[in-house]
Design goal:
35% of the residues lie in helices and 21% in strands. The protein has 2 domains: 140 residues, Cobalt-precorrin-4 Transmethylase, domain 1, CATH 3.40.1010; 104 residues, 2-Layer Sandwich (Methyltransferase, Cobalt-precorrin-4 Transmethylase, Domain 2), CATH 3.30.950.10. The protein is an alpha/beta fold. Strand 6, helix 6 and strand 7 form a beta-alpha-beta unit. Pathway: Cofactor biosynthesis; adenosylcobalamin biosynthesis. Keywords: Cobalamin biosynthesis, Methyltransferase, S-adenosyl-L-methionine, Transferase.
Length: 262
């Protein structure tokens, strides 16, 4: 018996050519795509999703259903705010599945980068499943992440031989250097947390808008280049109205693991 299906498809970090053959094949099985739009950043990403559909889908064109992503409340209770935000998006997905997707159709969700790396689409889909109001199956197609593109642009491996790497956020980095590692990859940094790292001799490999025509990369000794990164970052945000950046910091010698940064 046929049933609704969701395909969570990683579409890469910004370049349509990042799509894998598996992702292209998955695109061509979808009857409808749910396209989030809100704000300048989301408008740009929505346009790129539409471009990907137009470029890679052959034959019958699927329906594109645009929807607004609700704003996350900013009251200081981070975990609770994220939980409420995910529940609100889950309610939207549930409605779109019920009202915009036939009982035997497949809906596609085009996820920036890779769905498993600092993206909550899988969690939100599980929220929809837990609500139990709409029956569906789903699968996940991996994609190229901004972290992969960052390392490729700087021509470096993500890890050093025998050394671990911690992937974390700017918010967590600002609370202190991660314990037990000298290499930290930072995503979702809205506060320029690299400025809080008390090791000017560390190396930083930074990139913004990775994979897009706006891509910018910088690297060097943290104490020397951090002001340049902040200046370039501010100018890019002013020009485009949003910023999406990722970076890797490699510490040669620094404060004791877990020590808070001044």
């Amino acid at each position: 018996m046929m049933a609704r299906r969701i395909r969570v498809i990683g579409i890469g970090a910004g370049n349509p050519e990042h799509l894998t053959i598996e992702a292209v094949n998955a695109l061509n099985t979808c009857d409808v795509f749910f396209i989030p739009v809100k704000g300048e950043e989301k408008t740009f990403l929505a346009g790129l999703r539409e471009e990907i559909c137009a470029r890679f889908i052959k034959g019958k064109q699927p329906r594109l259903i645009h929807f607004d992503i609700p704003a996350r409340r900013q009251d200081g209770a981070y975990a609770g705010a994220v939980k409420d935000w995910h529940e609100a998006i889950a309610a939207i997905y549930e409605r779109l599945l019920s009202e915009e997707t036939g009982a035997d159709e497949t809906a596609g969700l085009l996820v920036w980068g890779d769905p498993m790396l600092y993206d909550s689409t899988i969690r939100i889909i599980e929220h929809v499943r837990a609500r139990g109001h709409v029956a569906f199956e789903y699968d996940v197609i991996p994609g190229i992440s901004s972290l992969q593109v960052l390392c490729a642009r700087h021509r470096i491996p993500l890890n050093r031989i025998g050394e671990p790497v911690q992937i974390t956020t700017g918010r967590r980095l600002a609370e202190g250097w991660p314990q037990g590692v000298n290499d930290a990859a930072i995503m979702l940094d809205g506060i320029q947390a690299y400025e809080t790292v008390a090791d000017p001799d560390a190396e930083i490999f930074w990139g913004a808008y990775l994979g897009t025509s706006m891509e910018t990369v910088l690297s060097g000794r943290l104490g020397d280049i951090a002001p340049d990164i902040s200046r370039v970052r501010a100018a890019a945000r002013a020009e485009h109205g949003w910023i999406m950046d990722t970076y890797l910091i490699r510490r040669k010698a620094g404060p004791e693991d877990g020590e808070a940064q001044p």
